[in-house]
Amino acid sequence: MTANTDILRDGVLGLTLIKSGIEPNPTTDQEEHFFTYALYPHAESWRYSNVSDEAYNLNQPLKTVKKAMAEDVYSYANVDKKNVVIETSRRLKRVKAL
Questions:
Q1: Does the pLDDT of residue 24 top 80, yes or no?
Q2: DSSP E strand stretches across the chain
Q3: Are 35 and 17 in contact (CB under 8 A)?
Q4: Residue 16 bridge partners (DSSP)
Q5: What angle do CA 79, 84, 89 make, to 5 degrees?
Q6: 14 SS3 class
Q7: Considering the entire predicted model, what is its pTM?
Q8: Measured between alpha carbons, how far is 18 from 3 in angstroms, rounded to an integer?
């Protein structure tokens, strides 16, 4: 399943929400689907306009924890590059290391 956008004539935006094959499920395109999308106008190329950050924030919204204090937050890793995202980490079972 993919989403695709095209700018058409007279400033009309076309949005294709689903293109699906029929294998292994021949009725995939006839089932109920849910989509989330956002329009993010930007002047420069998507590479220089924070499009990836906006997409990530849309698809992975910030979750809050009630009664969390700043001193209760710990970080096991950090990144100082904009093009790197740490999504998941887990402790190895046999080694006491991240």
A1: yes
A2: 4-7, 13-16
A3: yes
A4: 4
A5: 70
A6: strand
A7: 0.53
A8: 6
